[in-house]
Amino acid sequence: MNANIKLGRIWGIPIGLHTSWFLVFGLITLSLTKGYFAQEYPQLSTFSHLGLALATSLLFFGSVLLHELGHSIVAIRNQIPVKGITLFIFGGVAQINREPDTPGVEFRIAIAGPLVSLSLVGLYEGFFLLSNHIPILSASSAYLMRLNLTLALFNLIPGFPLDGGRVLRALVWKATKSYDRATRIASAAGKAIAFGFIGFGIMGVFAGQTVDGLWLVFIGWFLHNAASSTTQQLRAQQLLRGVTVKQAMWQDCSEIQGLTTINQLVKERITPNGQRCFFVTDFQGNPQGLLTIEDIFRLPQQKWRFVTAGQLMTPFNKLIKVDVDSELFAALKTMEESDTSQAQVVEFNRPVGIISRDQVLRFLQLRSELGA
Predict the structure, then answer these.
(1) Which residue of the set 40, 68, 255, 369 is catalytic?
(2) Has residue 98 got a pLDDT over 90?
(3) What does the buried/exposed string (b/e) look like for 244-264 if buried means 16 or more CB atoms within 10 Å of the residue's CB?
(4) Is 68 annotated as catalytic?
(5) In the predicted structure, residue 107 carries a pLDDT above the cut 90
(6) Within this chain, do residues 257 and 211 fall inside the same structural domain, yes or no?
(7) Model's pTM, two decimal places?
(8) Taking all residues of the chain, what is their mean pLDDT, rounded to a whole number?
(9) Of the residues 239, 261, 281, which one is the last residue of a structural domain?
């Protein structure tokens, strides 16, 4: 879940918003304006209701951000990098760059978020008691107290991708000593819970609670997709276990001069020989960058006569590097984390080929079909 809008950094962690966040922020604010605050304070103006609703919504998403920061800080303390935190339609997600190495680390990272939310429940409850003589403040704090309690309890449901699912995986992992088995069990629990949400949502729709019912169906659909994605990732990891980058990379990258037009390259090198990658050089023959057939396909064909290899290539300093003997699954994760589609394969720091996400996926599909 990548952020469309960057907000800044907290403790070095990038914070951002996905565009879907504005939808749920608007719905919560509207619900508070027309419902909760209008019922609690009918004597106040609609403008006052709107102001209270906006402040309460912002404080709630601040609580969600603190929940995700709880996960992130514990991850960083255990030497696991955090790519960023994104607020989106279902709340927030901390993008942790790799899975924990031990069940203990998994448990600590997973439980940190709900513990932060439960701490906020206590904080807002204390504020509610202190401001009880000022109804306009106590109503907002009471609402935030309930929302944070709901956030904590919802996330503790024992199924992937929720925090409770990660806690479950940590416990099963500890008991069975098997990360794979623990992941399958937590993912299966996540799918069962997702179907439960969908079922209750459909029942709600038929009972006349259309909006709430559709929302539950939507949540169930999201949870099921996330749990299925975890299962697929585990399957990919199993299929690629022991496979090195060298077994799947392109090694036939020949050299071309940067002034070669794409049209000339296609006619002279790609069509007759089927070459798929090229090291682009300067006049002295020094490699400057990498050009792949995927880069060419992304360029409209009518521009092939006017664009050169040097203009279309990806410079080497913008390419990530993976070692020729590194595991293929690790290389795939590196590309995903770097949000890039290809990487330069090096041996003793010398370029020997390239690997792309498309190559890895094709290789993975082939091994799956062959039952490897």
Answers:
(1) 68
(2) no
(3) bbbebbbeebeebebebbbee
(4) yes
(5) yes
(6) no
(7) 0.74
(8) 86
(9) 239
Return left, alpha or beta for 254; rule: phi > 0 is left, psi -120 to 50 is alpha, else beta.
beta
In a shared domain, residues 252 and 351? yes
Write out pLDDT tens, residues 134-181. 777 777 888 899 989 998 999 999 988 889 999 999 999 999 999 889
Domain that holds residue 131: 5-239
Are 190 and 255 members of one domain?
Answer: no
Q: In this structure, how many other beta carbons lie within 10 angstroms of the beta carbon of residue 214?
A: 14
Angle at 94 between CA 93 and CA 99, to 5 degrees: 120
Question: Is pLDDT of 121 > 90?
Answer: yes
Sheet with strand 320-323: strands edge to edge:
320-323, 342-347, 350-356
Helix (H, G, I), strand (E, B), or coil: what is residue 371?
coil
CB-based contacts of 50: which residues, under 8 Å, 6+ apart?
29, 33
Looking at the 3D structure of the chain, how many domains does it have? 2
Q: Are 186 and 110 in contact (CB under 8 A)?
A: no
Closest CA to 82 of 114, 111, 109: 109
With residue 81 as reference, give the H or E element that holds it.
Answer: none
Q: What is the pLDDT of residues 241-290, one digit of tens each?
A: 788 888 888 777 788 888 899 999 999 888 887 777 888 888 877 778 88
> With contact defined as beta carbons under 8 Å apart, do 279 and 290 qualify?
yes
pLDDT at 238: 77
Task: List the strands of the sheet with 254-257, edge to edge.
Answer: 254-257, 277-281, 287-292, 314-315
Q: How far apart are CA 74 and CA 13, in angstroms?
A: 12
User: Do 280 and 227 share a domain, yes or no?
Assistant: no
Q: Which of 239, 257, 273 is the last residue of a domain?
A: 239
